[in-house]
Design goal:
about 400 residues, alpha+beta, Rossmann fold, Pdz3 Domain, six-stranded mixed beta sheet, 21 strands, about 25% strand
Length: about 400
């Protein structure tokens, strides 16, 4: 009888796609919601999306959630959360923030604003460093559903500059259910793909909702990025959808965010036009929505030497699809490629003396340089205007 029960349980887990584990690390999740600056119902949606997306593939026994909201969403509380943190070498840290954000004009660094104890500024790099150095976690994941528009600073009468964050939030009613429901996995189990990404991967990955000088769209359903993240993790349980690492998952998240933004933008514009309320000439949110055609998540920190992500680009030539280079779609803040002047959206068509037609060509060229312990790379790059330029990337010091 006992053997039959064991067999039945094994078949249940196998059929459901989940694996029972005898031991595993923990996933510690800190969710920061600036409900003093943003609409409470919208940031609560973000929380539901983040929590539920993890619970859909990871047994609750392996998850530890902490929420800082309203007056508790302060810079000190966020940074102190990682002092004497219990995360060990087999554990994962996730920090998700739903708050204002922007690019500091002089340094081009991403800065977050928390309103729990006044309008405090938190450097993204400072939070990431705290997570990396004050814990022993094997995997550190920092996500934020924040804008990356330029921060506006104006002189104030008493000396300190006045700081203004620009955002794009639509005043719409929710289309999702009031409470998002997820199907939890069987007790003490983890879906194999979730296990690979959250319990076996190592490193530091830092992603914001949008690229530099763009907005992270939010409406009655919360942030576009947060709900795209939920959809992306739900898709991990589909047959054949098994990203091998976080870079592959990022590509899926990027595609999902772009599609959700496009649908949300179209629905909002169509609704406003049908009500004869569409006024891009006089309403700044309407103008921003009209001007911004897409929203793509951006890496702010990546492992590796060059710390960038590319994707092959195809074109139709003589009725045949051929590779014409690789597009830069992700750049770490400290990437030597970024420091040399290459930007997201640039097309790489050559490295040193070799032509680059696709990802395999780029990987081969980089491997040859790294094996030879070279200190410089010469990239041939096309910008958005199609003009070609040479960019020298230094590898010294890392």
């Amino acid at each position: 009888m006992f053997s039959r029960c064991v067999l039945a349980l094994a078949l249940l887990f196998s059929w459901a796609g989940f694996t029972p584990l005898s031991a595993a690390g923990k996933v510690y999740v800190l969710i920061v919601l600036d409900s003093k600056a943003l609409k409470e119902s919208e940031v609560r949606k973000d929380k539901e999306n983040i929590e539920g997306s993890l619970k859909t593939g990871i047994g609750e026994e392996y998850l530890r959630f902490t929420t800082l909201e309203g007056e508790r969403a302060t810079k000190a509380n966020v940074l102190n959360h990682y002092v004497n943190h219990p995360a060990g070498p087999e554990d994962t840290l996730i920090c998700f923030l739903s708050c204002h954000g922007g690019i500091w004009p002089d340094t081009r660094q991403h800065v977050l604003q928390l309103s729990g104890a006044g309008k405090e500024l938190l450097k993204r790099s400072e939070l990431r460093e705290q997570m990396m150095t004050r814990t022993q976690a094997r995997l550190v994941l920092l996500f934020s559903d924040s804008c990356s528009s330029l921060i506006e600073t104006t002189p104030a009468p008493r000396g300190d500059n006045q700081i203004t964050f620009h955002s794009l939030r639509l005043r719409t009613k929710p289309t999702q259910a009031s409470e998002i429901r997820f199907r939890a996995p069987p007790r003490n189990t983890i879906h194999p793909t979730f296990q690979k990404l959250f319990f076996e991967a190592r490193g530091v990955f830092d992603i914001n909702a949008c690229t530099e000088e763009t907005f992270a769209l939010s409406d009655g359903d919360g942030g576009v990025f947060a709900r795209s993240w939920r959809m992306c993790l739900e898709d991990l349980k589909l047959p054949g959808n098994t990203p091998e690492n976080w870079l592959e998952l990022y590509l899926s998240l990027r595609s999902k965010t772009e599609k959700v933004y496009e649908a949300t933008r179209k629905r909002a514009i169509d609704t406003l036009q049908s009500r004869e309320e569409w006024r891009p000439d006089t309403d700044q949110d309407h103008k921003d929505l009209q001007d911004q055609k897409t929203q793509s998540p951006q890496f702010h920190f990546l492992p590796g030497r060059l710390k960038f992500v590319t994707q092959g680009v195809m074109a139709l030539r003589n009725n045949q699809s051929v590779g014409i280079g690789v597009r830069v779609i992700g750049l770490s803040d400290d990437s030597p490629v970024r420091k040399a002047g290459i930007r997201i959206g640039d097309l790489i068509t050559g490295v040193n003396d070799g032509k680059i037609f696709g990802s395999d060509d780029l990987n081969g060229a980089l491997n040859r340089v790294f094996t030879a312990d070279g200190t410089e790379l010469s990239f041939t790059v096309q910008g958005a205007n199609g003009a070609e330029r040479k960019v020298t990337v230094s590898l010294s010091g890392g």
